[in-house]
Design goal:
Blueprint lengths: L3 H4 L2 H5 L11 H15 L4 E4 L7 H6 L4 E5 L2 H8 L9 E3 L11 E6 L10 H14 E12 L12 E7 L2 E8 L4 E9 L9 E9 L3 H10 L2 E7 L13 E8 L3
Parallel strand pairs: 1-2, 1-4, 2-3, 4-5
Antiparallel strand pairs: 5-11, 6-7, 7-8, 8-9, 10-11
Amino acid sequence: MINQQHLWDDDAARNYDTPGEGMFSPEVLDPTVEVLSQLAGDGPALEFAIGTGRVAIPLSAAGVRVSGIELSHAMISRLREKVGESRIPVVQGDMSEARAGENFSLAFLVFNTISNLLTQDEQVRCFQNAARHLAPDGRFVVELWVPQLRSLPPGHGGTVEVSRPGYLLVDTYDVLRQHVISHHVQFGTDLSDGRAARIGRTPHRYVWPSELDLMARLAGFELESRWADWDRSEFTAESRSHVSVYRMSER
């Protein structure tokens, strides 16, 4: 069993933020915050796996009342270096079980984080937990990548997903358990700890959109919208990811 607390430790939290670059770049963050702000409306929002506040902090700055749930003590500590509890309250715990209140207009889970739950049962419970937090007409937003099994060459169990100067991402698949391990290799002369290279591995359980929709139905949601990205572009068979908006069904 993977210990997620050990996986998202002080070292991971210290190296997580990349201000202005990657998933912290304005072209990624700005449309994310814009869509979530519109979906929240005048109501409060809850982020599952809030991390170091990548989305929650700019969403709060946009006027949305944001709370969070986060498993990692280290990630919460990093968040607290940036904003206080009074501005963004956070409950420490598992996003499939922890409670942070009720009657939220929006709950959201971004950047593939639902796949950090490594069993189908945990992922189903995550949807159920979102439903418990929401107002009767509330929405649950999930951002997730589409498994790229078509990229697997015959007889091979892995793919190179990213190759750029200083960084290499290799994904290895266990198709029987729907598991993928992402191997992140950073190299070059700019590593803060002086090493020639740093490698990190993160396990995931990948989920097809149709399976995600069934989990949502079991928890009392119906699919309202699905886009290929936060720019609301059309989701197609060639899309590499999706942003799915689920709304509470009539109870």
